[in-house]
């Protein structure tokens, strides 16, 4: 097994940033997932927060119970335990989507731009299993990749002032579900009735970094039955 390449740098008085190879790659994402599990076990009560991303992890520790040098050594020990990035231990998640021009105002434009039918846009979006690479932008906003190359679309030149909760969207090679109403510049193709962030619930999100997500089309009646609003 080849040695895992990484960089470890200070990110403040009580934080360290761990960088793997900086590219979007399922194998790198598996390493991030494995490293997070090892770090949680190793730092235990000293860990205040751990924030994984596409190819990096921010580790925030309690400066009153440990110190930067000890944590650095512990992280280095964790990284020596990383295994080959073959399999993910993430969950398999299905998210229902009401795809339509009513619920996805950019659906027809994507179809026209790519010279395919709306039905083909919907088929291709459902055909892929998407990895949760990162959580960011807003609580519950999961960055999922990667979409079919034909569906790749740039962000809108002028973001919308308000995107509805549950909006399913595409930007570049990523797709996502907006967890709450917010401004946004992604291309909207449908609505998902599943709550992506519920404070006070356990867990607060239905997905986590390392999970695999598939979208499943539902009609309007089923979307409303599941709690969606148009």
Automatic annotation (TrEMBL):
Q: Which SMART domains match?
A: AHS1
Protein name in UniProt: Allophanate hydrolase subunit 1
Pfam families from the entry? Answer: CT_C_D (PF02682)
Keywords in alphabetical order, please: ATP-binding, Hydrolase, Nucleotide-binding
Q: Which Gene3D superfamilies match?
A: 3.30.1360.40, Cyclophilin-like
Which NCBIfam families does the entry mention?
Answer: 5-oxoprolinase subunit PxpB (TIGR00370)
Q: InterPro entries of this UniProt entry? A: CT_C_D, Cyclophilin-like_dom_sf, PxpB
> According to the lineage, what is the superkingdom?
Bacteria
Q: Which GO terms describe its molecular function?
A: hydrolase activity
Annotated organism of origin = Rheinheimera aquimaris
Q: Where is the Carboxyltransferase domain?
A: 6-207
